[in-house]
């Protein structure tokens, strides 16, 4: 009996041993199925993310296109359209298809460039050892401060009051006068350095070039403001 039990016991062990390969096959199949399922799930998630990103880009693209079209329409009336477009498109702000709004942004850029020129002038005077040039640079400081004051006044003049949608002829005339005065201040500064024969003339002229272009753009935009109104109302932006 003991031998039979022992044999039966061995028989059970043999049965288990025979079933182990089958169990391994089942486990491997399950593991493979789980792996495939996880891979598919991950792929769907990634694909969904790309689709979402694509939809965001397709939504943002018309906005960017409208912004570019508005800026090109306004900057197209200036003598320096490239510098006009690059300076305004680089601003970190919302953009509206409105010539007055864009014009105000343009005035702000001019004021910033003029402020940079004024700061440069102060630093230039501090490091200059030329007594004669220092006198002219001091005059330039005063003139550029005056120019900034004119531009600040032009920004105030360009603000629309309650119920206003367009700039009145009087406002546009005042803005032209103020911006022209700011440009005259710059030119007077350069004339003083030129008359003196200052070696700093070219350096100062180069530094002022950008603010000079920006203010020239301001004058061109306000001079064509009525035409720009018509273009924006008709949707004739390009």
From TrEMBL:
<dbReference type="InterPro" id="IPR035513">
    <property type="entry name" value="Invertase/methylesterase_inhib"/>
</dbReference>
<comment type="similarity">
    <text>In the N-terminal section; belongs to the PMEI family.</text>
</comment>
<feature type="domain" description="Pectinesterase inhibitor">
    <location>
        <begin position="66"/>
        <end position="221"/>
    </location>
</feature>
<feature type="transmembrane region" description="Helical">
    <location>
        <begin position="26"/>
        <end position="51"/>
    </location>
</feature>
<dbReference type="InterPro" id="IPR051955">
    <property type="entry name" value="PME_Inhibitor"/>
</dbReference>
<keyword id="KW-0812">Transmembrane</keyword>
<keyword id="KW-0325">Glycoprotein</keyword>
<comment type="similarity">
    <text>In the C-terminal section; belongs to the pectinesterase family.</text>
</comment>
<dbReference type="InterPro" id="IPR006501">
    <property type="entry name" value="Pectinesterase_inhib_dom"/>
</dbReference>
<keyword id="KW-1015">Disulfide bond</keyword>
<protein>
    <recommendedName>
        <fullName>pectinesterase</fullName>
        <ecNumber>3.1.1.11</ecNumber>
    </recommendedName>
</protein>
<dbReference type="Pfam" id="PF04043">
    <property type="entry name" value="PMEI"/>
</dbReference>
<dbReference type="GO" id="GO:0030599">
    <property type="term" value="F:pectinesterase activity"/>
</dbReference>
<keyword id="KW-0732">Signal</keyword>
<dbReference type="GO" id="GO:0004857">
    <property type="term" value="F:enzyme inhibitor activity"/>
</dbReference>
<keyword id="KW-0472">Membrane</keyword>
<keyword id="KW-1133">Transmembrane helix</keyword>
């Amino acid at each position: 009996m003991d031998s039979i039990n022992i044999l039966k016991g061995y028989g059970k062990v043999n049965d288990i041993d025979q079933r182990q390969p089958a169990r391994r096959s089942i486990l491997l199949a399950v593991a493979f199925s789980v792996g495939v399922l996880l891979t598919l799930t991950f792929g769907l998630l990634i694909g969904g993310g790309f689709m979402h990103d694509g939809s965001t880009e397709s939504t943002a693209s018309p906005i960017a296109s409208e912004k570019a079209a508005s800026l090109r329409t306004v900057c197209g009336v200036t003598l320096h359209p490239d510098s006009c477009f690059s300076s305004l498109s680089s601003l970190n702000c919302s953009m509206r298809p409105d010539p007055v709004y864009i014009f105000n942004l343009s005035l702000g850029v001019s004021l910033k460039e003029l402020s940079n020129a004024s700061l440069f002038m102060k630093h230039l005077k501090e490091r200059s050892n030329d007594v004669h040039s220092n006198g002219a640079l001091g005059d330039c400081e005063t003139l550029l401060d005056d120019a900034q004051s004119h531009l600040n006044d032009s920004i105030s003049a360009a603000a629309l009051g309650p119920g206003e949608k367009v700039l009145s002829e009087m406002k546009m005339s005042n803005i032209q006068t103020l911006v022209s005065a700011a440009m005259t201040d710059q030119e007077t500064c350069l004339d003083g350095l030129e008359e003196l024969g200052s070696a700093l003339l070219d350096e100062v002229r180069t530094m002022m070039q950008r603010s000079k272009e920006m203010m020239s753009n301001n004058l061109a935009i306000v001079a064509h403001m009525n035409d720009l109104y018509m273009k924006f109302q008709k949707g004739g932006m390009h």
